Fold:
Amino acid sequence: MPRLEGHCWSCSCSTRVKSKYLSSASWLASKAGEMMTIISALLGHAYGSLHHLQAANLLRRGLVLFTVGVFLALVLNLLQVQRNVTLFPEEVLATLFSSAWWVPLCCGTAAAVVGLLYPCIDSHLGEPHKFKREWASVMRCIAVFVGINHASAKLDFANNVQLSLTLAALSLGLWWTFDRSRSGFGLGITIAFLATLITQFLVYNGVYQYTSPDFLYIRSWLPCIFFSGGVTVGNIGRQLAMGGAEKPHSD
Structure:
């Protein structure tokens, strides 16, 4: 009998220990589940906030680039119209800077697309742009771009080929001075090609015209303007993507 009682007592103690162990494990599991739920909720909230901030930042950069594109289009197109390089039918001209209303809108939209595309391509290629990343360099790039446009309207050469070669050298010099990236060069060439095709289509359909066309319906130096414009707007977009923070550049 004592042996039987001892056996029953040991079984009872073992059962209580196991029950206590299982209750502790259940409590820990429930607490772990609660912690995971809280962590998941916090991560979801943080992701939503980050996504919202990224969307707001993207919209802000797009608006800035659109404004810059509209301003440059108004100023530079005014120069071309005054020098009779670009001719618009009188019925499509507006009073604002003697320019067609759709020109600044198209240029602003193109500037927003190109300016947002440059940092995205840099990120996709894993080659962040590090050359001369400061606003002073961007402003000098804009000044050189305006100078190239001014030269296209003001300089007089014996023929359009000499003018086109000069502007091509200036455009390549702009890229070498302020960019020097393979992505910037490739996107500049692509932008120049597509913009030239669109311009040819518009001129062919009589939307406007160029005086003394020598490259089908347009002037042969126009792709150089598109190339330098793409590089300039791309640098603005890259700088805006930095959030305005100046960082040391590497030559």
About this structure: Residues 1-11, 244-251 have pLDDT under 50 and may be disordered.
